[in-house]
């Protein structure tokens, strides 16, 4: 309805509208606003879900890379230290008499994998005593599962006893070693998969095959590992391998999964998985005299 009002200065009428917003228009505006808000909320929730999934996938990929990187560093050093003397001794190294004990889902390697100290004074050939800088370093070789030693990476021995920083070896030294020469501890290490309260983990078993076995978790949510073994010509070796001394490369395949399932992922149990395969060249097999 249009009302007419006349100006006090003229007879020209002024048109004035009394029309406002109706209830129907207000309801339509509210419905449109609700649709827009709902669409924005769904987009936000979808974005958050995608972000969470990508974060879990990234964590999984990083997890498996860290796991295989550590395995590569140690497996590559299998046999370091000219281990013939300790592997051929009664009982070998913690029960192992081969540099590599190959299996499909586990592998055990032996080597001088960790430098403990250096020689404090010259070690003379045909003598049995060597001296480290302090008793703390020397105590690393106390006990039956710890007493395998490598000097300079060229000869291995067994520690019979210790007095302070002085170690007495089972066999005379074969060569002269000057002060400052690196001293390594020989380990037997097994890698494999175990269940940790419902979570599959890649384990690293230090001093494996002994009563003092020390299993530590390398990475969680690693549900499968497989090892394949190759000779110097690249030929796949069928298990069981009669002579593990011919192994020159180990192929490791690790399968990791996300730490949580995604209900919307159409893939069986909802876990996303990645498999990484790496070839590890064994540097010290067939090298030591």
Write the topology of this structure.
Layout: E1 2-6, E2 13-17, H1 23-75, H2 84-87, E3 100-102, E4 107-118, E5 129-131, H3 135-138, E6 148-151, E7 155-163, E8 166-169, E9 182-196, E10 199-206, E11 214-220, E12 222-230, E13 236-237, E14 249-257, E15 273-281
Antiparallel strand pairs: 1-2, 3-4, 4-9, 5-8, 6-7, 6-9, 7-8, 9-10, 10-11, 12-13, 12-14, 14-15
Structural overview:
With 289 residues, this protein is an alpha+beta fold. The strands form 3 sheets. Strands 3, 4, 5, 6, 7, 8, 9, 10 and 11 form a 9-stranded antiparallel sheet that branches. Strands 13-12-14-15 form a 4-stranded antiparallel sheet, with helices on one face. It has helices at 23-75, 84-87, 135-138, and strands at 2-6, 13-17, 100-102, 107-118, 129-131, 148-151, 155-163, 166-169, 182-196, 199-206, 214-220, 222-230, 236-237, 249-257, 273-281. The chain is elongated. The protein has one domain (67-281).
Describe the structure using short key phrases:
289 residues; alpha+beta; 15 strands; elongated
User: Helix coverage percent of residues?
Assistant: 10-25%
Strand fraction equals 35-45%
Average of per-residue pLDDT values:
88
**Rg over alpha carbons:** 35 Å
Judged by helices, strands and strand pairing, the structural class is alpha+beta
| Shape type | elongated
Q: Termini separation (Å)?
A: 112 Å
Q: Would you identify the regions where 5 or more consecutive residues have pLDDT less than 50?
A: none
Q: Spell out the helices and strands N to C.
A: EEHHEEEHEEEEEEEEEE
> What is the total number of structural domains?
1
Q: How many β-strand runs?
A: 15
Q: Number of helical runs?
A: 3
Give the biggest sheet. Answer: 9 strands, antiparallel
